[in-house]
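lol forgot to send this yesterday, sorry. struct tokens for the thing we talked abt
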């Protein structure tokens, strides 16, 4: 009776044929996902800005605290057109429409944010502010941009 005994140096063992463990992380799929997200955000970011396009004046004032509901915004553009949120309104219809909106929301204590283009006619802006004050609206906030530079 003979026995076959393989020696460890003979090359018959499995350990010598194993591939070394790969310790690197493949980042290609992560880069692909990040590039797709970048493209999605670049395309969708301009679509998120809604409202009347205005060139707001710049000041050094601090921003106001806002509550949860969407603020009531009025806008005056360069041509003197007046908007409530995004809907254009004639000056004659301004106070009745605002009263209807504020009665449903919170009465005359509702804060109204007035946005006016810096090249808009000052007389039109003053007229809108006068109409609001005469109608009994007490909380009027002028919207500006943060001053760049100094």
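and heres what i got for the seq, position by position
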């Amino acid at each position: 009776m003979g026995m076959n005994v393989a020696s460890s140096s003979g090359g018959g063992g499995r350990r010598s044929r194993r591939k070394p463990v790969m310790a690197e992380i493949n980042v290609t799929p992560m880069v692909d996902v990040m590039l797709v997200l970048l493209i999605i955000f670049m395309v969708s970011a301009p679509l998120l800005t809604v409202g009347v396009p205005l060139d707001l004046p710049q000041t050094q004032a601090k921003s106001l605290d806002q509550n949860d509901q969407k603020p009531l915004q009025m806008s005056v553009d360069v041509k003197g057109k007046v908007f409530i949120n995004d809907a254009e309104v004639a000056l004659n219809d301004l106070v009745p429409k605002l009263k209807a909106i504020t009665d449903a929301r919170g009465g005359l204590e509702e804060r109204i944010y007035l946005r006016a283009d810096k090249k808009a006619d000052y007389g039109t802006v003053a007229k809108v502010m006068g109409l609001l004050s005469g109608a009994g609206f007490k909380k009027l906030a002028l919207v500006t941009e943060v001053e760049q530079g100094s």
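The chain has a mean pLDDT of 77. anyway ping me if u want another try
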